[in-house]
Amino acid sequence: MTSHSMYKEHILDLYKNPRNFGELANPTNSHHGNNPLCGDEITIQLIIKDDKIVDVKFKGVGCAISIASASLLTDHIKNMNVETIKNLTKDDILDLMHIPISPIRLKCALLSLETLHKSIEK
Ligand code: FES
Hints:
This protein is α+β, with helices and mostly antiparallel strands. It is built from 5 helices and 3 strands, in the order αβββαααα. The protein has helices at 3-16, 64-76, 82-86, 90-97, 106-121; strands at residues 29-34, 41-49, 52-61. Strands 1-2-3 form a 3-stranded antiparallel sheet, with helices on one face. The longest helix is centred in the last third of the chain and has 16 residues, at 106-121. The protein is globular. The protein starts with a helix and ends with a helix. It binds FE2/S2 (inorganic) cluster (FES). FE2/S2 (inorganic) cluster is lined by residues 35, 38, 40, 62-63, 65-66, 108, 111.
């Protein structure tokens, strides 16, 4: 198996069994984002304490890439500083995904990052 197909399997696995999927009882921040092109949507909830992410959950319906990227991103930001999150870019998401994302699927991969960025603006 090539490493790309291994990561593809990993993406599909995260789609079927997403990490950090659900709702928090007392989020300090949350945002609902959607991709108007396809109608997929996700809500990210955070607990921020002393400028750090102490807990995070997401919920939503979407394609494998949008759900897998939300899984990977929510894992990645646990205990992360809010300032560091503000500086996360498209390239960080692509690094987490480990598979080539075609320009047309880029919106799917970035939905979680856009939603996360909006959730910490509040
Ligand atoms: Fe909608 Fe991917 S097809 S976010």
